[in-house]
Write a structure and sequence with these properties.
Elements: H1 2-22, E1 26-35, E2 42-51, E3 56-57, E4 60-61, E5 65-72, E6 74-79, E7 85-88, E8 92-95, E9 100-106, E10 113-122, E11 129-130
Antiparallel strand pairs: 1-2, 2-10, 3-9, 4-9, 4-11, 5-8, 5-10, 6-7, 6-9
Length: 136
């Protein structure tokens, strides 16, 4: 009986964690990853990034270069020193390696934004790292 109760409690806890992960304001899914065929020490990544309704990503930097495609929704986008862009489904953007991504905000309070990001990254490096800067 104790074991059955423990299994039930564990199952409920895992279900809660799974539900919380589905409701996360920013969700990143890796779609593709491989070593770069021509550049030693680099890898090619394709990521699906979802920003929930009204969600935003904190300021961050990417060690590699990123080309993004807005699949659905609308996004405010700004690199440090650049203009604030208002992107919509079908638009693209580019981030040079090391650039500071200051604004990434879903402007729709009711629908998510889906971005497909194509990345050439240093092998094994994180997709992004947080930065403390608050002004574009």
């Amino acid at each position: 009986m104790k074991i059955d109760l423990r299994i039930t409690i564990l199952s409920l806890a895992l279900a809660s964690l799974s539900a919380m992960a589905d409701d996360a304001p920013v969700k990143i899914t890796e779609l593709f990853k491989r070593d770069h065929p021509e550049l030693a020490g680099k890898e090619i990544l394709v990521k699906r990034i979802e920003l929930g309704p009204g969600a935003s990503a904190p300021p961050h930097a990417h060690p590699g270069m990123v080309t993004g495609y807005i699949e659905t929704g609308s996004l405010e986008f700004q690199l440090k020193g650049g203009p604030l862009l208002k992107l919509k489904a079908g638009d693209t953007f580019f981030e040079p390696a090391g650039s500071h991504h200051m604004v990434a905000k879903n402007t729709d309070p009711a629908a998510k934004v889906v971005i497909i990001a194509f990345v050439v990254n240093p092998k094994g490096a994180p997709l992004s790292t947080p930065i403390d800067e608050q002004t574009p």
